[in-house]
From TrEMBL:
<feature type="domain" description="Hemerythrin-like">
    <location>
        <begin position="10"/>
        <end position="128"/>
    </location>
</feature>
<dbReference type="Pfam" id="PF01814">
    <property type="entry name" value="Hemerythrin"/>
</dbReference>
<dbReference type="InterPro" id="IPR012312">
    <property type="entry name" value="Hemerythrin-like"/>
</dbReference>
<protein>
    <submittedName>
        <fullName>Hemerythrin domain-containing protein</fullName>
    </submittedName>
</protein>
Amino acid sequence: MEIESMQDDAVDILIIEHEEVTALFEQFRGLSARSKDSKKRISEDICAALSVHALLEQDIFYPAAKTALKEADLIAEAIVEHASALELMERIRQMEPENELFDATVKVLWDQVTRHAREEEEKMFPRLRKSKLDLVALGARMLEYRRVLETGPGRIPAPAGAAGDPSLA
Ligand SMILES: [Fe+2]
Ligand SMILES: [Fe+2]
């Protein structure tokens, strides 16, 4: 889906990213035990997509949500969960797919990320939709920031699977 042309708001953008990451995890799960190279490659795609997503939330979305909702606890919890996911991702990046803990580490990351994303979608996002926060303007800022993250210095490359998606170019 072409994100920009739809004028999606910040919440739509984050939900689409949740779905993209879920699809990558499902791709990983569908690989046979012998597909070590593909496992490594898809795990890298997962980590790249999650890194960009986490930064969009932490640097742009959460600060705005914190002000709009006045629910510092909810945001603080989300930030701690991000830190935990980043640690697991770092471990996965350093790990060879032959490592007997590789699949399990990806699985634990998936479990954590799924729970975290569900909390966002069921608690944080609906409350924000009811708030006065301008989610369309926030979404535009997030897309701009994502462009910088994916193309600027020290860039985080877009997942290979998304290479044909013009919204990620
Ligand atoms: Fe998050
Ligand atoms: Fe999220």
